[in-house]
Amino acid sequence: MVENNIDEPNEIPRKLSFISSTSEDQTNAASKIAIMTIDPLKSTIDSTEQSVPNDIIPIFSIRKIYKNLILISIAFILMFTAYNGMVTLQSSLNVKNNVGVNSLIITYSFLIFSSIALIGVSMDLFGLKWTIILAEIGYIFYIAANIKPLPVLMYISAAFVGLAAAPLWTAKATYLNQIARYHSQHKNQTHEISVSLFFGIFFALFGTNTIWGNLISYFVLNQSSTAQKYNCGIHFDPQSALPTNTTQDVNDTTRYILCGIFTGMGFLSMLLLFFTLDSIQLTQKQTMKQLLNKSLEVLLSLKKWKYIDQFFLIPLTMWTTIETAFFTAQFTRAFITCLIGIRYVGLVMVCNGVFQALSSYVFGRLVKYTGRIFVFVVAALINYAMIILMFLWNPQSNQMVLLFVIAGFWGIADAIWQTQVIATYTVLYSETDPSALAKYRLWKSVGFVITYSYSSYITIRLSLILLLVYLSLSMICYAFVEIHLRLKQRSQNKCAVTNATN
């Protein structure tokens, strides 16, 4: 591994340059995320060590620790196999009155609110286990609403998902963090090592949900292959396209089977947690006034930028969801459904998921030697190449292989964006700006809302132009971040030399 010399003023310290998405460096980042997540406004390890006194709450046995780790991983795989399987199909399955995409806009709009206001309240009121179970009810409601996608049902259930999402993931992270603490005491090792191990296991298992959900979609929609076959790709205009759910493309029986399977998986996840997951009580609960003050501090932090480089990370943070939203809402409808039919959405997305998982491992190893800048440039070049390919390609139904090519390469780039941007926030700000994670979630949600808001109203040609603009702006701003970090490091080195000579 290359070691940076701190005496060289134009080099960034190792912890700022080398972040792995699957190796020990990434799991270190994951552990810091977990520690920050317990209390978004307290990021130091010492403060979280006191959140659950072990002399009051019995330590689980090793067997019980691993049992709960596997159970919560399986439960999340089941839930998000179902939920992500439905989300991928929204722009193709529920096109009438734009109900599908509108529901996603509502979800991410409410997620902004829940990320700021509901995390601490829900865990203090219900505890970790019941926060997860109650949050899953919102997801199940949304999946079931797709059986009969009436606007009122879809929108209300989407709001529930948005409100439930932040408490769900925070309670999960807190639960894993606590059983990892128990594990570290059994093994006589540092807390961070155990957190790294547990989050690595969880995300290795959880990452397969995209594959399973899309495979289910493919086999259930096997007979639903009616395609528009004209004005697809760059020529696609969502305003003039045929709405899928007003034709015989997906009949009621097929819809009931698909939604029934996914709803059943959601219920199975919830029941698994209810009957088998052991409860962990957080003993230090906060008053409502303290929780409201925290939410207010997060909002105020958006007005006072302590770190100028964090401000310039906003475009890149939003890009991580803009490119995802384009792929799930627009690419699936304008290229896959239009050209070869809705049944192939799942199959193409499986390809995307496989390449994303493999790339997380490959670039996780590679980034330790090349640095963060290199992998970001690789991801940007891949996105540029795929956008240009979509511009130049005149889609034909006998060129289906190109859909898999685009999906695969997009998955490679997405793997880099999704792992390295959050790792950047974690390494740079986890110990200095406790509101960094809340702001990261906020800007990601804003990116989703913006993209979903226009995805059903503008042509693919204009969408691709916007993607080029977003990506270029993101990379320019990120270049400023790296320049600023290097200048700051140079200044610190000069101060260190001056102090040493004095």
Per DSSP, what share of the residues sits in E-state strands of 2 or more residues?
Answer: under 5%
Sheet having the most strands:
none
Low-pLDDT segments, ≥5 res: 1-57, 243-248
Q: What does the average pLDDT come to?
A: 77
Report helical residue fraction.
over 70%
Q: Looking at the structure, what is the overall shape?
A: globular
- Secondary-structure element sequence? HHHHHHHHHHHHHHHHHH
This entry's quaternary arrangement is single chain
Instruction: Return Rg in Å.
Output: 23 Å
* Secondary structure tally: strands: 0
Describe it.
The chain is mostly helical and 502 residues long. It has helices at 14-17, 24-38, 45-49, 62-93, 99-117, 119-145, 151-187, 191-206, 209-220, 252-276, 288-301, 308-311, 314-340, 343-370, 372-392, 401-429, 436-455, 460-501. The protein has 18 helices and no strands. Helix 14 packs across helix 16 (401-429) and helix 15 (372-392) packs antiparallel against helix 16 (401-429).
In short:
By secondary structure, this protein is mainly alpha-helical.
Which descriptors would you attach to this protein?
502 residues, mainly alpha, disordered N terminus
Give the helices and strands, then pairings:
Blueprint: H1 14-17, H2 24-38, H3 45-49, H4 62-93, H5 99-117, H6 119-145, H7 151-187, H8 191-206, H9 209-220, H10 252-276, H11 288-301, H12 308-311, H13 314-340, H14 343-370, H15 372-392, H16 401-429, H17 436-455, H18 460-501
Helix pairs in contact: 2-7, 2-8, 2-16, 4-5, 4-6, 4-7, 4-8, 4-9, 4-10, 4-13, 5-7, 5-17, 6-7, 6-10, 7-8, 9-10, 9-14, 13-14, 13-16, 13-17, 13-18, 14-15, 14-16, 15-16, 15-18
